[in-house]
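To the team - iron/sulfur cluster complex, inputs and output below.
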Amino acid sequence: MTADASRVGGVLHCFSGDAAMAGECVALGFYISIPGTVTYPANTALHEVVRQTKIEHMLLETDCPYLTPIPHRGKRNEPAYVRLAAEKVAELKGLTLADVARITTRNTAQLFRIAGMDYNATLAYKIRNSLYLNITNRCSNHCTFCAKFEDFTVKGHQLLLDHEPTTAEVLAAIGSRSDFDEVVFCGYGEPLLRLDLVKEVAAVLKSRGTKIRINTDGQANLVYGRNILPELAGLADTVSVSLNAADAATYGALCNTPFGDIGFQGVCDFLQEAVRHIPNVVATAVTVPGVDIAAVKRLALSLGVQFREREYAEVG
Ligand code: SF4
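Output:
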């Protein structure tokens, strides 16, 4: 195995190693291919491989006519049974079958350089049961842990915009679809940098009875120099704010806020103010090595908001 595998690409066919080995292979630039044996209840080692390996590094296969998945075990394997492996991977990763199909199809196209994939940016994209809106790639912060600086693909969706969409374009991308539980303003950028568009689109969606979440860095009041939260009252059901640290020094080092020391205080103030206008307010932190997640949680609770930890290097 060469350390330059990423230059040519490669796949560990019908992977049967453990999670540590899978991690080393991924670090060398290989994809990990998951066969139908993932459906076997006793194959806990492969289940752990699936849990610990980012799905962006996974392919699916059958290895037919061998290694027939449950419930057909003992009979000849068929290509059509790849769905059974996909369903098990979806269960283990907490994704939908559609998510797994989309992501592993894109992985396959990238590995084998298969032409014909649509690499245009997606404005409205579904992950699990949420419909996300990709309205800007701009951010106030420049977070050290952000995956967008390497790749603009999230769970199989291409998010690199060639222009910032208008309200009409975003509404057209949503269309009349209703196959989701909530709409999330997120994308790979800071949605509240497009406050007017957020308010316009949210107002239309609210009139349809849609639940709305806004994922934000919590610095909008600093950006606009005014309290924008009353403007979101009645439009957003949830705001999820990236708190990420328990003190200004850590926040500054992690997130590179353009507002210096007041950036962190601005996020804390935003959280406290949000509770007055939005029904659900959640502070989040990414489990970046070295961050005291327990301290961030204590801070969030002291600010009167909920807390959710987000896994490092897992986006979407
Ligand atoms: S705010 Fe979000 S999208 Fe922007 S740099 Fe930070 S992690 Fe990335």
